[in-house]
Amino acid sequence: NVGKAEEGNCSKPDPTKCYENYYPEEMKDARIFPSKELLDRTCPSLLKMASCFQDYVDHCVDKNNDLVNTFDVKFIRELCDKQSLLRNNFLQNVDCYQSMISQFDECVNESSYAYRDYIDTVGYENFKDEQYHRACLQPVCTLACKLSEIKATCGNKARKAFFEIEKLRDSVASTKYFCNLIDFEKEVKSGFFTKLDIPESRRRVFAEVVQYFRNE
Predict the structure, then answer these.
(1) Which domain of life does the UniProt lineage start with (predicted)?
(2) For the residues of the chain, what is the DSSP string, one character each?
(3) SS3 sequence, 163-206?
(4) Ranges under pLDDT 70 in the chain
(5) What does the pLDDT look like over 102-111, one tens digit per residue?
(6) What is the reported pLDDT for 127?
(7) pLDDT (0 to 100) of residue 1
(8) Would you give the end-to-end CA distance of the chain in angstroms?
(9) Which of 37, 38, 92, 172 is buried deepest, with most CB atoms within 10 A?
(10) How far does CA 70 lie from the centroid of its chain?
């Protein structure tokens, strides 16, 4: 039962066991973008971990609740599929992505500051409402910033490859989930996004990202 969650023991599910049992040691530096060589070495273990997570979701997660899982099964399987065009496009630009760690950190900080400044001027009804807005607006802003930086440094093809891979992450699905819980259109047309000082060179990328997260 390699790569399987423990069936019949879902009263206290512990998906962290999948991570502990299978996640490769050399992948634990979250600041490393995986190269082809690293994926070749680690994908057998990563795929076992993905299967373990999927088994947990299939057997232990109530499909009717609103729990958003962050197991990245689709993301892992795509990166480990040697026939995947998304993977190949991503790997062609991975060195450039790796060189941009400091810019990505700055995007996180800028988005945090922008949201903090905005929240100081807007009062949400309650703490939960504020948390929903933060969980949507801040990561959307961060991703748009990262993609803008990638386009400027690595080129538009690199930006597209990064965005397509990111769409497979459960964290992006989680962001979409929270954006559907708020009045996202209001934030686009008269709220948070109208308060951002977005340079002309970044506006097209920001518009594309915002469109992706619009309520469907």
Answers:
(1) Eukaryota
(2) -TT---TT--SS--THHHHHHHS-GGG--TTPPPPHHHHHHHHHHHHHHHHHHHHHHHHHS-TTS-PPP---HHHHHHHT-TT-HHHHHHHHTHHHHHTTHHHHHHHHHHHHHHHHHHHHH---SSHHHHHHHHHHHHHHHHHHHHHHHHHHHH-HHHHHHHHHHHTTSHHHHHHHHHHTTTTHHHHHHTSHHHHS---GGGHHHHHHHHHHHS--
(3) HHHHCCCHHHHHHHHHHCCCCHHHHHHCCHHHHCCCCHHHHHHH
(4) 1-14, 30, 62-70, 215-216
(5) 999 999 999 9
(6) 87
(7) 46
(8) 39
(9) 172
(10) 9
Q: b/e map of 149-163 (b: 16 or more CB within 10 Å)? A: bbbeebeeebbbbbb
Cα-based distances in Å from 202 to 144, 150, 171, 196, 205: 8, 11, 23, 11, 6
How far is Cα 3 from Cα 58, in angstroms, rounded to an integer?
13
Token pair listed for 10: 């879902």
pLDDT score at 63 = 58
> What is the rounded distance in angstroms from the CA atom of residue 77 to the CA atom of residue 130?
34
Provide the residue count of the chain: 216
d(CA 19, CA 177): 24
161-202: pLDDT as tens digits: 999 999 999 899 999 999 999 999 999 999 999 999 999 999
Closest C-alpha to 114, from 92, 139, 138, 98? 138
Do the beta carbons of residue 60 and residue 10 sit within 8 Å? yes
Q: Which two tokens stand for residue 14?
A: 């512990």
Contact of 132 with 181, CB cutoff 8 Å: yes
